């Protein structure tokens, strides 16, 4: 970890991230093989290194080296970056072949899951489902809330039956997001439940209470409350909370300036965003950005609370 600012400084000074040693190994290969953990592999990936280059002796890619070392975090980072699963080394082994030989069950599962996901990307229906993930998540929340209410109001005195139905519902609703919704959109599940609860509040009021209202003031006050909530929710969701942004050239200038003034350390430099940390800022790992005057990441709005 202590060498990551040095890496940033050298790359900012025009050192190639793909330079090799006498064995033809790049910094990414050495990091994936020698350093167990997500860093500095994840840090090097931010500088767009070559993912599929091979060394001179073993013809291994960085993913091969990560699998050989059993470096689960590095394998995860490299798969997320798009490393090839099909390149063979000098022995004719793919990364999956090496994992099977080493009997590392977690890495085997990760490689097979990634291969299956990349195969699914070829199907038009799967690509359409990925585009509609947020809508599907919202519909799942709406249907789940309706089903819970229906089961609890079911015309039966048997709480055992209702309990079994609720457990079955919970099992089915937990399976659906796992197979059809990616991890990046799964974080919006609390937001989807919030919006679906507002939907059912409105529907319950409109169906059960609206016909018996004596006057228009009740109607307009409720409608105004719902519209105001949706408006302010949208403003909260769409407004920039204080994300710190910088161009590639600005990042390099900041890194060089911090290094030459002796301030290139974790107190002033964010190794995820490659920028100088603003005052009272923290890096949000959900939004993957530094937020000025960071307070928290709100699960219900799916956004950070900060300067904005």
UniProtKB/TrEMBL annotation:
Residues spanning the membrane: 134-152, 158-180, 187-210, 216-234
EC number: 2.3.1.225
GO MF annotations, alphabetized: protein-cysteine S-palmitoyltransferase activity
Record key words, sorted: Acyltransferase, ANK repeat, Cytoplasmic vesicle, Golgi apparatus, Membrane, Repeat, Transferase, Transmembrane, Transmembrane helix
Enzyme type, top EC level: transferase
ANK repeats by residue range: 58-90
Domain Palmitoyltransferase DHHC: 266-307
Main location: membrane
One CC-aspect GO term: cytoplasmic vesicle membrane
Keyword Transmembrane helix recorded: yes
Localisation: Cytoplasmic vesicle membrane; Golgi apparatus membrane
Reactions catalysed: L-cysteinyl-[protein] + hexadecanoyl-CoA = S-hexadecanoyl-L-cysteinyl-[protein] + CoA
Keyword S-adenosyl-L-methionine: no
Bilayer disposition of the protein: Multi-pass membrane protein
Sequence similarity: Belongs to the DHHC palmitoyltransferase family. AKR/ZDHHC17 subfamily.
PANTHER family the record matches: ANK_REP_REGION DOMAIN-CONTAINING PROTEIN-RELATED, PALMITOYLTRANSFERASE ZDHHC13
Record note on domains: The DHHC domain is required for palmitoyltransferase activity.
Protein name (Swiss-Prot/TrEMBL): Palmitoyltransferase
